[in-house]
Automatic annotation (TrEMBL):
<feature type="signal peptide">
    <location>
        <begin position="1"/>
        <end position="20"/>
    </location>
</feature>
<feature type="compositionally biased region" description="Pro residues">
    <location>
        <begin position="120"/>
        <end position="131"/>
    </location>
</feature>
<feature type="domain" description="DUF4296">
    <location>
        <begin position="32"/>
        <end position="114"/>
    </location>
</feature>
<keyword id="KW-0732">Signal</keyword>
<dbReference type="Pfam" id="PF14129">
    <property type="entry name" value="DUF4296"/>
</dbReference>
<feature type="region of interest" description="Disordered">
    <location>
        <begin position="118"/>
        <end position="145"/>
    </location>
</feature>
<dbReference type="InterPro" id="IPR025381">
    <property type="entry name" value="DUF4296"/>
</dbReference>
<protein>
    <submittedName>
        <fullName>DUF4296 domain-containing protein</fullName>
    </submittedName>
</protein>
Amino acid sequence: MKTFRCRCRGLLLAPLLLTAAACGRPEEPVAPADLLPKEQMIRLLADLHVLEARTENSRLPQDSARALYLEQQKALLWRAEVTDSAFQRSYRYYGVHGKDLGDIYGAVIDTLTLRAQRAPTPPAGAPPPTVALPENASALAKQAK
């Protein structure tokens, strides 16, 4: 009876091990044809993070702020002549290559730090700067409701 259990375990374990080996990640994923260069990804990600911070601090309701962010994100990608799908595919590709995405975000942090240092500092006691929203922000807020 004991040998029967061992044989069953062996029969069940072999396919499981073969399946687990087949599920491994491929050696090198294929780069998409429209892969954005790292420098362009750095600029886009820095701009998108600034846009996100502006919309979060806009004091709009959450759904309106999200609608505004998505609209402005579309406009930013359009100005950069990048499709949303090309950006997503590039981000996923660099994400699979953890070191590449780490290098990109290191450069994004450096870029944002440099931008913050170059920004004029308000005088002491001055009210915080207002967030520059597009003219259609109120229309977007009404659409979101």
